Amino acid sequence: MNAILSANKANRLFWLGRYAERGYLMLHLMRRAYDEVIDVPVGEVPYSDFLKKMDVYVSNEMTTSYQMMEQLYDPDKITSLRSIIEMMMDNAIVLRADIFSESFSYIELCRDLIRAKAEVRETNISELQPITDWLLAFWGCIRERVHGETYSLLEIGRLLEHLDMCVRFDYKYYRIEETWETLKRCKETFPDVFDAVEFKRLEGLISDKTQYTEDFAGYKANVLSAICSLVLV
User: Fold this and answer.
1) Averaged over 10-27, what is the pLDDT?
2) 23 and 60 co-located in one domain
3) How many whole angstroms separate alpha carbon 24 and alpha carbon 131?
4) Residues 135 and 218 in one domain
5) 153 in any annotated domain
6) pLDDT for 62-120, tens place per residue?
7) Second label for 200, Cα 20 to 30 Å away, from 23, 45, 64, 110?
8) In a 10 Å sphere around its CB, with 0-12 CB exposed, 13-18 middle and 19+ buried, how is residue 181 labelled?
9) pLDDT at 1
10) From the CB of residue 158, how many other CB atoms can be counted at a distance below 10 Å?
């Protein structure tokens, strides 16, 4: 890694990439879960299944609407959309000069909207659609204006989070394989950021389509474990 890029900055770039992708995908998946249960009574399965896949504890005493509000707006719940956006903002503030003001402004818009909707406990999840749009615009700006190691670390964070979410939410095998192939190209240009042992282990897991189809629960646990140890920042 270039010595000019400090360890602290590298860590923040990586996690900004992860949080931005997590916020984007999480809102998409929450919207889909919400659509599935909108006419289902308390105790429904789909939204609880969403929470379990995010490793969120679910109490049987919670109503669907309460679960939704907690996962959207609770600032003290690290898995909530609001917390993810707040963590995006914390990293972006430090990195403002590196990602430029235009990219930064899209994260600021996301932060302001989620806070405003939390104040009124907005129950219509479609009101959060601008966050999806702004995160897409954020990545568009990043690809247009940010280069070199700064861009690489953001992209590695994004791809690793995308891989994590694809595995958690049982995406088709080809989606996992495509993300991995792109991540491998990042390693070719920026190898020092990856743990070589964990990279080899993860490559072996992802190339084993048989395990994916025949032992998905075990496969998922192993892949998520390897992802946690893959990047050295």
Assistant:
1) 97
2) yes
3) 8
4) no
5) no
6) 556 677 788 899 999 999 999 999 999 999 999 999 999 999 999 999 999 999 999 99
7) 23
8) exposed
9) 46
10) 25
Please indicate, yes or no, whether residues 116 and 25 belong to a single structural domain of this protein: yes
Cite the DSSP H helix spans in the chain: 7-37, 46-53, 64-73, 81-94, 96-120, 129-145, 148-168, 173-189, 196-207, 209-214, 216-228
- Does 31 share its domain with 111? yes
pLDDT at 46: 55
With beta carbons less than 8 A apart as the criterion, state whether 89 and 74 touch. no
Residue-range definition of the domain harbouring residue 120: 7-146
**Pairwise CA distance, residues 50 & 9, whole Å:** 32
| Tally of structural domains, the chain | 2
Question: What pLDDT does 233 receive?
Answer: 87
- Report the pLDDT value the prediction gives residue 50, as an integer from 0 to 100: 81
Query: Is there a single domain that holds both residue 119 and residue 211?
Result: no
Question: Token match 């600021």: residue?
Answer: 108
- CA 226 and chain centroid, separation: 16
Q: How many residues in the chain? A: 233
Amino acid identity at 176? I
Q: Closest Cα partner for 14 from 81, 76, 94, 79?
A: 94
Within this chain, do residues 22 and 126 fall inside the same structural domain, yes or no?
A: yes
Considering the domain boundaries, does residue 154 fall inside one?
no
In a domain, residue 187? The reply is yes
Of residues 3 and 192, more confidence is placed in 192
Residue appearing with tokens 């995908």: 25
Q: Are 179 and 90 in the same domain?
A: no
Amino acid at 37: V
